[in-house]
Amino acid sequence: MASFMADNSSSPSNSWPLDQFVQDPGYLAYQEELRCLIFNTAQTAAPSREASPTLGNYGPTDQELAAQAQTKTALASGRRLEYLKNYVAQVAPWLDMFDSNEAFTVQVPVLARSCPALLYAVLALSARQMERKEARQHSFDSLELYQEAIRLLNPLLQARDLTIIPICVILCCLEMMSASPQDWRRHLEGCAALFDSFDVNGFSGGLLQAVFWCYARMGLYYSSKFFFSLCRY
Measured between alpha carbons, how far is 94 from 1 in angstroms, rounded to an integer? Predict the structure, then answer.
């Protein structure tokens, strides 16, 4: 975690100059699509707690096997295995900063093996952290991974699968590394709507509880950035 936090270019606690990533039309289009999907899902009638899907519930075994095959194929391309290792070694410990159970380090990679959308979200966040750390200005692998995560997220949102909550929060972390607080504020608001719709809070237990507190930290970060921006005028 120390190496992740030590470099100003890779730490979400610092402000970075905007790079070409946030100006890419593909990013802007998928960012808006993600926001619309989140709000539409949150606004639909929530299922009862008994009927709510469980994390990683992908139905029949053949679907689970297909998902696992898809994640295996995804990791065989380019630097993706490197991105996964970087997530476990550097990114996840930051997300788990106040979680002694290390849900993002331990549970998320296991869940991602059978959830391609979650895997792509993890890879996108890790790739983005490496791009910021290396001060890349062009050729962003994270953009392609971000777009694929959103594409795969759509059916999960329609099915109201609880896995959408960690996926959306992880993608929000990516946006926090990429854009101004004003630009990712709506994603934070969308996550809040999802938490409310699915009745997830800081006492839900397990991964969902860890995800909630990760989101809460981002909310505090946004509030502090907004407050200090007001103080400059």
Answer: 6
